[in-house]
Amino acid sequence: MSVTVYIPTSFRRATDNRDRIEIAANDISRLLDQLEASYGGLKGLVRDEGGDVHHHVSIYVNSEAIESLQGLRTPLKDGDEVAIIPALAGGARAIVTPEELEAIRRQAVEEYPRESCGVILEQGQLRRLVRCRNIQDELHAKDPQRHPRDARTAYFIDPKDLLRIGRLEGEGYSIAVIYHSHVDAGAYFSPTDRQQAQISGEPTYPAATYLVTSVMAGRAEAVAGFRWSASERDFVPVELFRAASTARSERFAASAASPSSSRAVRGPGSGTSTAGPISTSSARGGR
Fold first, then answer.
1. Which residue from 23, 90, 113, 229 puts its CA 20 to 30 A from 236's CA?
2. Nearest Cα residue to 168 out of 134, 209, 130
3. Alpha carbons 284 and 8: distance in angstroms, whole number
4. Which residue range(s) make up the domain with 123?
5. Could you tell me if 172 and 63 lie in one domain?
6. Is the pLDDT assigned to residue 106 strictly greater than 90?
7. Looking at the structure, do residues 177 and 108 belong to the same domain, yes or no?
8. φ and ψ at residue 56, rounded to 5 degrees
9. pLDDT for 95
10. Is the Cβ–Cβ distance between 276 and 204 less than 8 Å?
11. What mean pLDDT is reported for the chain?
12. Strands (DSSP E) along the chain, which ranges?
């Protein structure tokens, strides 16, 4: 009996850069046991110390999330395909074209008063903007204790979108930008954003650039970019460059609104603030 396991790019440092591994196991729990026994570096990446799968990691059997099956006890059979998909995948350049920036701002306004989310992937000169669905409201309605926030103050990318992103990554695409919006709050990288973008204090995707759009009263007011700084051990603001369609490009420096800003920015104490990932991290985020 043999099951094929897809390993995401961000975890391949623990598997000698192997993207697919053949495993003989009759359920997901035993499959993960064997993976961790063969590749010790995977310990802590997929499951926590209690043996549960991290919230920012999704596992699929033949494209179906194990949460909708039997969880870690989901049975496996010969020929099954298992995909391990973290919140989001990392990427390269912090560049958005005017069209991409406009699409991101438009989506943020359209989905107000819920947080929007998505990614921009690239492969060489090819670029694809993937607009994702925020399922935070559904998670909150289903289990408000585990997911106390709704989509006004948090986002969780639909697992179907995460799987699609993982497949594109398998085709050679990488993620250049991970974006989401803040509802009636500033364009800053919140403590929750930072937490979801790290595992055990290390950036899950150190090359990824995160874009945050501030939507105030239904209007996109600001866009800011953030990226991990190895020297500062934190996510720091970065300049966004708007690439023009002509040889001339116009530099666009997006100002990040601080959580302490006097402009209608609410903090955790007043019920606000915060992907990816994706996931993302991540595929999820919150203020």
1. 113
2. 130
3. 17
4. 95-286
5. no
6. yes
7. yes
8. -90, 10
9. 66
10. no
11. 80
12. 3-6, 20-23, 57-61, 64-65, 81-86, 95-96, 117-123, 126-132, 154-156, 174-183, 198-199, 202-203, 209-216, 219-229, 234-238, 240-242, 250-252, 284-286
37 and 108 fall within a common domain: no
Residues 6 or more apart in contact with residue 258 via CB below 8 angstroms:
186, 188, 265
| Residue 285: predicted pLDDT | 65
Cα 263 from Cα 184, distance rounded (Å)? 9
Looking at the fold, whether 115 and 71 belong to one and the same domain comes out as no
Give 121 or 231, the one with higher predicted confidence.
121
Rounded CA gap, 145 and 151, in Å?
15
Strand partners, 179: 118, 211
DSSP-derived pairing of the beta strands 198-199 and 202-203: antiparallel
pLDDT in tens, 109-168: 999 999 999 999 988 888 999 999 999 999 999 999 989 999 999 999 998 898 899 889
User: Cα Rg for the chain, rounded, in angstroms?
Assistant: 19
Handedness of CA 279, 281, 283, 287 (dihedral sign): positive
Q: How many residues does the chain have?
A: 287
Chain segment 27-53, per-residue pLDDT in tens: 999 999 999 999 999 999 899 889 999
Of 86, 118, 145, which one is at a domain's C-terminal end? 86
Instruction: Quote the number of domains for the chain.
Output: 2
Cis bond upstream, residue 113 (ω within 30): yes
Tokens representing residue 275 in the block: 């992907």
Structure letter (DSSP) for residue 254: P
